Backbone:
């Protein structure tokens, strides 16, 4: 980051404006990736569509989530260490925003543009007010960790191995 940009970001209104524009951009990426996946699955003719699920869910959620992460898992050697603790706001926001967009537009019948606006505000206020955000999301995140079996603390990097001395 350049010194000038660093100085500008120290001004609260500049930081808020940057957060607002970044939230709009990331929400646009989530919705765009989600809708692109939905259209791609709907137009697929090589395999028959499911009679049990009228809408494709998994590819849309996955594409929306990855679009909202913005390459956070690259390079692949990083693995999933960003979600080991669940403390990276951009990853959590992409996860929750994708599910909220799906639920509001596909299940509740909200207009996509209205849902996009609310998700942008969700990301913005989560970015600007981290204390209340963490307090509000802590129960949801804990429930997700319990139901999925993910750990709240990262796995150890080095597994101790007991050596048998051969004498």
Residues:
């Amino acid at each position: 980051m350049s010194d000038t940009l660093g100085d500008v970001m120290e001004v609260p209104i500049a930081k808020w404006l940057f957060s607002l524009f970044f939230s709009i951009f990331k929400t646009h990426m989530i919705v765009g990736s989600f809708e692109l996946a939905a259209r791609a699955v709907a137009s697929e003719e090589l395999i028959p569509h499911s009679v049990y699920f009228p809408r494709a869910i998994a590819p849309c959620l996955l594409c929306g989530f990855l679009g909202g992460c913005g390459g956070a898992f690259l390079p692949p050697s990083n693995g999933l260490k960003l979600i080991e603790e669940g403390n990276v706001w951009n990853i959590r926001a992409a996860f929750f925003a994708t599910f909220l967009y799906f639920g509001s537009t596909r299940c509740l019948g909200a207009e996509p543009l209205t849902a996009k606006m609310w998700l942008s505000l969700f990301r913005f206020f989560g970015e600007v007010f981290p204390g209340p955000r963490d307090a509000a999301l802590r129960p949801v995140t804990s429930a997700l960790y319990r139901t999925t079996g993910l750990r709240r603390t990262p796995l150890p990097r080095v597994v101790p191995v007991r050596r048998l001395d051969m004498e």
In short: The first helix runs from residue 3 to 9. The chain has a mean pLDDT of 81.
